[in-house]
Design brief:
about 350 residues; mainly alpha; about 55% helix
Amino acid sequence: MRTERNLTRSLDRVFARLDREPERPAHIDVPRMSRHRVVLFTATLAFYLAIVWAVVITSWLVRLDWQVMFFRPYQQWPQIHAFLDYYVVLGQRGPTAVMVAAWLGWRSWRQHTLRPLLTLATSLLLLNITVGSAKLGMGRLGPHYATVIGANEMGMGGDIFPSGHTANAVVTWGILAYLASTPRARRWLSALSAVTSLGVGLTTVYLGTHWLSDVLLGWAAGLLILLALPWFESLIAKAETALFDLRDRWRARRARTVPAPVVPVTPSPVLLKPRPAPAEQSAAPAREPVSPVRGSRAPIHLAPGPHTARSERTPVTPAGSRRPPHADRLPRGTAQPARPLTGN
């Protein structure tokens, strides 16, 4: 019960963090080329050159390469062969670049900054230039194509030295540690990327596709790129500013070219008058338009026919008077006779 409750709380925290409105962080910790980093870069470069020199002069390191190849690890431990076939994909350029780019793209959207994606692109570009040129320049053949036992197989047209899988694993997974936002996360991710990249390199030795010295040189090549990235931070910042300016100009140009939306206007109703007959058009006087709105008064009903005086109207009551007849009354309009004067 307590485990389910803790799991529910953890999921609530994760979803609450995902539901936050994207916002640009107030401060981004950009690594700088400190003295400690310069010392590590110098030591790694010296290690890189030492490995190359040891292979060129066919030293004890080349003899160790041949001993490991004759040992055939894939035959000694065949039960882990299927697992390591999938594990080595963590060092391939395509799948790892897509996974890391997806995570860094989401992070760029959340933080409103292009630095994570631009840093990944810069590191992969440096990886292709440095490791690719070293592979083609030294031209070493792999264990499966070796021609002379005990030879260093340098300058034979191969492309195996240094190990591209190992260098790619160091750079691709190490870039997550380089872009970490807290020192604690940076330490954990650095250790995880180191173990993952070294495991990928040893897996290529197990499968017989690389010499042991190839793995050591690939690990050093990838670490050199991660240590040199602070030198390119100013260039990354300029590229980010230029891209944002280009986006703003494109939006402004698009706002000017897009026409304003047309609001449809509903026409008002038009009152049509009946057209008079052709014979009556000249005789009929012009009439003023009658407003369609009627008043609130009750309609007036006019009596038909011409207007007549009240005295000329036909009485609506029955003929004759309603009063009883009196003998001493005369009809209206008749002069009354003079009464005789009587003496007292």
